[in-house]
Amino acid sequence: MMKAISLAVLAGALAISTAVRAKEDVQSANFWISMCKADTPECQAYVFAVADMNAWFKVYRGTPVFCEGDKVTVGQMRAIVTKYVSQKPEEWHRPFLALALEALQGVFPCSAPNITGSVK
Which end of the chain is more exposed for a tag (fewer CB within 10 A), N or C? Predict the structure, then answer.
């Protein structure tokens, strides 16, 4: 009898947990920030996708959102995004993509002079 009650409580807890998780906005920073702070593969993949999207914009639209240069790694971009988003908890309800683009655009603007002084 006790085992049946324990299983019923466990099943109920799992059902509630699953229902709450299903209502989470998987596009929001609320969803992504903990994964990025923990440097999970999911966050690395997300930031890689942002960089890939930016490359697509550069090639097919001629206007990238940010200009990171050739030597910047996905790990470095993840660190920049995580730092930026971590410092703005009041913005965590917003789409993580928007905050990631703001972070990368702020650090790697396309209109900034490069090392030789010419504009990119």
Answer: N
